[in-house]
Task: structure prediction
Amino acid sequence: MLVTEYFPKDSMKDKVVFVTGGGSGINLGIAKHFAALGAKVGICGRRQEKLDEAAEELRSFGNEVFAETCDVRDYPGLQEVIENCYESLGPIDVLVCAAAGNFPCPAEVLSPNGFKSVVDIDLRGSFHACHASVEQLKETKGCIIFISAGQAFLPYPLQCHVGAAKAGVDNLMKNLALEWGKHGIRSNSIAPGPIEGTEGARRLAPPGTKDLIDEQIPLRRHGTIEEIAQVAVFLASPLASYITGSVIVVDGGQNLPGSGAGFNVIQQAWQEQSGNPG
Ligand code: COA
Result:
């Protein structure tokens, strides 16, 4: 793990990091990076089995771990989990709002409930986590890291629901930076590009299109979970003590060619494989 070569191994010792949706993918990768640096880690997610596996992995780093199921859409449920985490690990220093839902779907066939589900998980879920943690964050002068996406600032085909949700997330991030700065709370977003081995990449890229996507990325490759987690550690570290209200784009330059580049190919492939119009 590269992060332990650049950060002292105990640089997050006794810090409490809480990651929503921390049971897998980028989110678990973030949790593991903090655990590797000595942090106590709390995670929540919807599926007990996935959380149990993740918690076991996290415990292998030797620090206390808290894991409880909840759906971030359910405010009282999430609030209870965050209170239980406080009882177990202490006040949260780093809140990572990472729980997300995604599926590709043309706007004209997306049901209003499908649109709502993604906005509810990504945007309302992020607000719920911040609202339920703010007193703890005041106590620690902690920081919030939102996991956003390029869809927040560039339209992608088949992603109108995600774009709306993530644009909202980044706006929420900036508002909280503005309002909670006086408490010493920092608030920033990370916008990952396509990250290999994740559910998101699997859902968005039809089989056989990875090379086509890579061709459209200036760095000519997908990113890795580590490359996102490292930025989360940096944002939570004293090295980022004056950074708040920022979106850190970690996408190999994918956004630079503009929203259309390459995505027509993907849209066409999706239409051919799924029979969906749009
Ligand atoms: N295409 C179109 N609509 C879809 C869909 C798809 N692939 N998947 C779900 N929907 C619609 C459903 O049809 C439903 O709308 P309806 O009631 O009008 O039929 C609505 O979304 C909610 O579906 P449901 O299965 O009840 O949602 P859920 O709350 O259990 O799950 C999702 C949330 C839909 C986001 C689901 O994809 C999920 O749980 N994802 C979590 C994992 C994930 O997305 N990881 C990637 C992160 S980047």
The pocket of coenzyme A is lined by residues 100-103, 105, 110-111, 113-114, 117-118, 121, 199-200, 203 (CB under 6 Å). The chain has one domain: 3-274. The first helix runs from residue 3 to 6.
